[in-house]
Design goal:
- By secondary structure, the protein is mostly beta strands.
- It has a single domain (5-384), classed as Porin (Beta Barrel).
- The chain contains one helix and 19 strands.
- It has one helix at 9-15, and strands spanning 37-48, 56-58, 65-77, 81-94, 97-102, 108-112, 117-132, 135-145, 149-162, 167-180, 194-210, 213-226, 241-255, 260-271, 276-287, 291-302, 328-341, 344-356, 373-384.
- The strands form two sheets. The protein has a 16-stranded antiparallel β-barrel with strand order 1-3-4-7-8-9-10-11-12-13-14-15-16-17-18-19. The chain has a three-stranded mixed beta sheet with strand order 2-6-5, with no helix packed on it.
- The longest helix is centred in the N-terminal third of the chain and has 7 residues, at 9-15.
- The protein is globular, with a radius of gyration of 22 Å.
- Mean pLDDT is 88; it is low at 1-29.
C-alpha cells in the first residue's frame, strides 16, 4: 500500500543512473563503440525527513526510505556496435499522505497512511547502439515490476554531427505501457486494475562556440493517457489525459587557467493541467590528478495544477491535494567525487533537497506535506579490455 511513486518525477530521477548534472544528449556519446567493457555497481540511499508535529492530524510522521541497488555492464560488439544490460532493485518503506484535512483553527493537516508500507521494485533494461562515422543510434527496452505496478517501455534515439563536427543534432522517441493493481490493505482502494500509456518525443541541437564552450537547446513533448490518479489518496481524481512540454538550454564552459568547467542549465516546463515550472542548475567540474570534484546547486519553482486544493475538496470534478501538484520552491545542493585507480573508478555523491511554499515564484495554496530529503550514493566501476 503506497502512492504511485513510479509516476513521481522525484523517484524517476532516483531510478536513473546517478549523475550530478544532466549531460548533453548527443555530444555525450562518442561516434565509436566503447574501447573497453565496463561493469558498475552502485548503491543509493534516499531518506525523507519526518513531517513536523503541527503538520500531522493522524498517523506516522515518518516518511519514505528507499534503498536502490544498480548493476550494469556495457561492452563493444564488433567494430560498430555496443550492448548494455542494466539491473536495478528498489526497496521502499515508510508512510505517505492519504489526504489533507483541516485542523480546529482551519489550517491544513495531513492524515498519513501509517508506517506499514513496504514495496520492492525490480527493473531490467537492455540497450544496443550502432555507431557510424558521424553519429550513433540506440534502442532501449525496459521492464519494471513491483507489488502493485508493472511497466514495459522502449525508447529510440539518434545523434549525428554536422558542420565539421561543430554541430550535433539529436532526436529520441519513447513509449511505455503501465498497469496498476493496487494492494488492498488498511487504506481503502476503490479500483482493481487500470492502465496508463505514455509517449514522448525529443529534439535537440548542440553547438560548439569555441574550443572551450558548448551550448545546447532541446524541446520535448510528452503525452499520457489512462489512469493518472493516485489510488492511495482519498478521492484523488485527475484528468485521463496529460500533455507536457519542456524547453531546456545549457552551457558548458571550460576555463583553461583554472582547469575546471562550469555547467549551467535552465529548463522551462508547462502542461495542460495548468502547472508550470522553472529549473536553474549550476555546477563546477574540477579534475585533479586522479580524482574529480563536482559541486552543484539547483533551484526549482513550480506552479500548482488547476485542480489542486490544499484541503480536501470533494465537490469538483477533478481534485487532488497531492503536494507534488502544489506551488512551491526547492533548493538542491550536492557534491560528487570520483577517484580513478587504473582500471577502477570509485564514486561518492551526497545531495540535500529542501522545499518551501514561500520559495516559489508562483501563487497558490500551501501544501503541508512538502518533502525534504537526503540522498547518498557510493559506487565502483571496473573497465577492462
Amino acid at each position: 500500500m503506497r502512492p504511485l511513486l513510479a509516476r513521481s518525477p522525484l523517484v524517476r530521477r532516483l531510478s536513473q543512473t546517478v549523475a550530478a548534472l544532466p549531460v548533453y544528449h548527443g555530444s555525450a556519446l562518442a561516434d565509436a563503440p566503447p574501447a573497453f567493457t565496463e561493469v558498475g555497481l552502485r548503491y543509493t540511499q534516499y531518506a525523507e525527513d519526518s513531517l513536523a508535529d503541527d503538520k500531522v492530524l493522524f498517523g506516522s510522521k515518518d516518511r519514505y526510505d528507499i534503498d536502490i541497488t544498480q548493476l550494469w555492464i556495457e561492452a563493444p560488439v564488433g567494430a560498430s556496435w555496443s550492448i548494455a544490460l542494466d539491473l536495478q532493485n528498489d526497496y521502499q518503506t515508510g508512510a505517505s499522505p492519504w489526504f489533507v484535512g483541516a485542523t480546529a483553527d482551519g489550517n491544513p493537516g495531513v492524515i498519513m497512511s501509517g508506517a506499514s508500507i513496504q514495496d520492492n521494485r525490480v527493473e531490467v533494461g537492455v540497450t544496443t547502439r550502432y555507431f557510424w562515422a558521424d553519429g550513433n543510434a540506440g534502442f532501449n527496452l525496459v521492464h519494471s515490476k513491483e507489488d502493485d505496478y508493472e511497466a514495459l517501455a522502449w525508447s529510440m534515439d539518434a545523434a549525428w554531427n554536422a558542420n565539421g563536427n561543430a554541430t550535433t543534432w539529436s532526436v529520441s522517441a519513447s513509449s511505455s505501457h503501465d498497469t496498476v493493481e493496487p494492494t488492498q490493505e488498511r487504506i481503502p482502494v476503490f479500483i482493481d486494475s487500470e492502465t496508463l500509456d505514455t509517449h514522448s518525443l525529443y529534439f535537440g541541437v548542440s553547438q560548439i562556440l569555441s574550443r572551450t564552450a558548448v551550448v545546447k537547446v532541446g524541446l520535448s513533448y510528452t503525452y499520457s493517457e489512462g489512469f493518472l490518479s493516485d489510488p492511495y489518496k482519498l478521492r484523488d481524481q485527475r484528468p485521463e489525459e496529460h500533455h507536457r512540454y519542456t524547453l531546456a538550454t545549457g552551457l558548458r564552459q571550460h576555463f583553461i587557467r583554472l582547469g575546471g568547467s562550469l555547467n549551467a542549465d535552465y529548463r522551462y516546463y508547462s502542461d495542460d493541467w495548468g502547472s508550470q515550472s522553472h529549473t536553474v542548475s549550476l555546477g563546477w567540474v574540477q579534475p585533479f590528478d586522479r580524482h574529480t570534484v563536482n559541486p552543484y546547486l539547483r533551484y526549482y519553482s513550480q506552479g500548482q495544477a488547476d485542480f489542486f486544493s490544499p484541503i480536501a475538496d470533494f465537490t469538483s470534478d477533478y481534485y487532488s491535494d497531492d503536494y507534488r501538484l502544489s506551488s512551491f520552491g526547492a533548493l538542491t545542493a550536492g557534491l560528487r567525487w570520483t577517484l580513478e585507480l587504473g582500471d577502477w573508478i570509485a564514486e561518492v555523491q551526497l545531495e540535500r533537497y529542501v522545499s518551501d511554499h514561500s520559495w516559489g515564484t508562483f501563487g497558490g495554496g500551501e501544501a503541508p506535506a512538502l518533502v525534504d530529503f537526503w540522498r547518498g550514493t557510493v559506487g565502483v566501476i571496473w573497465r577492462f579490455d
